[in-house]
Amino acid sequence: MRIDILTVVPELLESPFNHSIMKRAQDKGLAEIHVHNIRDWSTDKHRKVDDYAFSTTAGMVMTIEPIERLINHLKSEREYDDVIYMTPDGKPFVQQDANTLSLQGNLIILCGHYKGVDQRVRDHFITKEITIGDYVLTGGELAAAIVCDAIIRLIPGVLSDETSALTDSFQDGLLSPPVYTRPAEYKGWKVPEILLSGNEKKVEEWKLEQAYERTKKIRPDLLDEEDM
Ligand code: ADE
């Protein structure tokens, strides 16, 4: 999978992909991430990429031209499955979206800044608009990094068995059950007996029950009414 990220602050994306599992995914050739500075595609001598909004609302808007030039350049080199725009007024990103996107080949992700991009960019180039939550960040870069992380870890071969994505919270519609490690007792705080029993069937039942109870308490919105 190849992801091209379009931004006016490429520095913000220097770190997230250069460590741990994201780095390993790239080293193994399972994912390629290319960060592009939209300013490099401006023809303005000051590398300007924004302008005043046609309205009374204060704030700058990202202009069409440099973005169009960069997107067209990328599209002339390869096919893209989606051109995603990170924006607080997009569709909320959930695990199912990560699953779907992890099966794609090439993606472009445009990070919004200032008051966002000219609506015509959204109308003519963007195929998906994504928000990572109901709060406003200073730009789409950190949101893009989150989406990339969620997608890339699902690519087969990226995670080892111990970190398998199959047991993640949300994959089965429930939050994850609690986990414990050694020691079995610490300051009198005991690991639940069942986990030490060696009875795999009972342990699985316990985990499902715990996952359900945790979901009911913390995220009842994830449960159907008949599950409650
Ligand atoms: N840009 C600013 N806020 C954002 C959010 N919540 N999600 C995605 N992109 C954003």
From TrEMBL:
Q: Does the keyword field hold Transferase? A: yes
Q: What is its EC number?
A: 2.1.1.228
Q: Which domain of life is it from?
A: Bacteria
Q: Which UniProt keywords apply?
A: Methyltransferase, Transferase
What name does the UniProt record give this protein? tRNA (Guanosine(37)-N1)-methyltransferase TrmD
Q: Which gene encodes it?
A: trmD
